[in-house]
């Protein structure tokens, strides 16, 4: 008798990821439902991007499997995968000759066959995604005339226009100033509140504390720790993950802060 199909938007089953002969983490099992946020935390070189490339099928898992909407990743055609997960890579949009709206349209085309062009429904979805993220006035502006923060928001709009069940965001606040970091994090909070499942990677424990219901922490030595935010975002666990003393400082009436203790 076959196992029942999973109802989760995303599921990892005993997943081990890395390069051939070298595991970066796992085995890891988890399921993510609509509206949940999973933060992937770890230092540079720990394997966060490798994990994300494994989740979208760009790399083969060393063992275990990935499922999207209950279907094994290995069985999904690209067009079906695009309806399950929208991936935003770390570097953001690089097709600078495109307008913001044209770039967001790429998210719609990912859902279609190879030679299908955009229709009225696609143009409406693009406009809605831009408006949802406060970018309507920038629709016709070329990407090269946008700030780094605006380009990152446009990348998020492309993923939103794709209308996938899960957003997979590789360090979405990388290289942004504090103001733009807050804007991006606020939009992610709103999208999760609207029912999207979100997986995002970060170097910042405070970003995980703000957004995540669960955290996967990987240390670059093949060790992965997975649990609730309360379980993983402790000084003891973070010190082990980053290899430096980290203290969690509780604040009355506010979120905790994480500081290097020098130990």
Describe this protein's structure.
This protein is of the alpha/beta class and 263 residues long. It has a domain at 10-94 and 164-260: Rossmann fold (3-Layer(aba) Sandwich), CATH 3.40.50. 32% of the residues lie in helices and 27% in strands. It is built from 9 helices and 12 strands. The protein has helices spanning 48-55, 78-82, 100-109, 120-132, 148-161, 178-193, 205-211, 229-232, 235-242, and strands at residues 10-19, 22-32, 37-41, 63-68, 71-72, 85-88, 166-169, 197-202, 214-218, 224-228, 246-251, 254-260. Helix 6 links the parallel strand 7 and strand 8. The N and C termini lie far apart (54 Å). 41% of the residues are buried. Keywords: ATP-binding, Cell inner membrane, Cell membrane, Membrane, Nucleotide-binding, Translocase, Transport. Residues 10-245 form the ABC transporter domain.
């Amino acid at each position: 008798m076959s196992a029942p199909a999973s109802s989760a938007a995303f599921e990892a089953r005993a997943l081990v990821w890395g390069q051939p002969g070298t595991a970066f983490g796992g085995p890891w099992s988890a399921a993510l439902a609509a509206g949940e946020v999973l933060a992937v935390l770890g230092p540079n070189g720990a394997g966060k991007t490798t994990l994300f490339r494994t989740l979208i099928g760009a790399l083969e898992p060393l063992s275990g499997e990935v499922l999207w909407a209950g279907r094994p990743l290995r069985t999904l055609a690209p067009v079906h995968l695009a309806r399950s997960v929208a991936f935003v890579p770390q570097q953001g949009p690089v097709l600078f000759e495109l307008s913001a709206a044209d770039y967001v349209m790429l998210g719609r085309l990912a859902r279609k066959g190879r030679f299908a062009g955009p229709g009225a429904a696609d143009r409406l979805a693009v406009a809605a995604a831009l408006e949802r993220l406060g970018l309507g006035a920038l629709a016709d502006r070329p990407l090269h005339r946008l700030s780094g923060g605006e380009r990152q928001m446009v990348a998020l709009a492309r993923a939103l226009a794709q209308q996938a069940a899960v957003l997979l965001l590789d360090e979405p606040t990388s290289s942004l100033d504090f103001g733009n970091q807050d804007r991006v994090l606020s939009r992610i909070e709103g999208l999760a509140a609207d029912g999207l499942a979100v997986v995002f990677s970060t170097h910042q424990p405070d970003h995980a504390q703000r957004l995540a219901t669960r955290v996967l922490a990987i240390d670059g030595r093949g060790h992965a720790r997975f649990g609730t935010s309360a379980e993983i975002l402790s000084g003891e666990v973070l010190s082990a993950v980053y290899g430096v003393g980290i203290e969690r400082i509780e604040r009355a009436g506010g979120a905790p802060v994480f500081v290097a203790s020098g130990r």
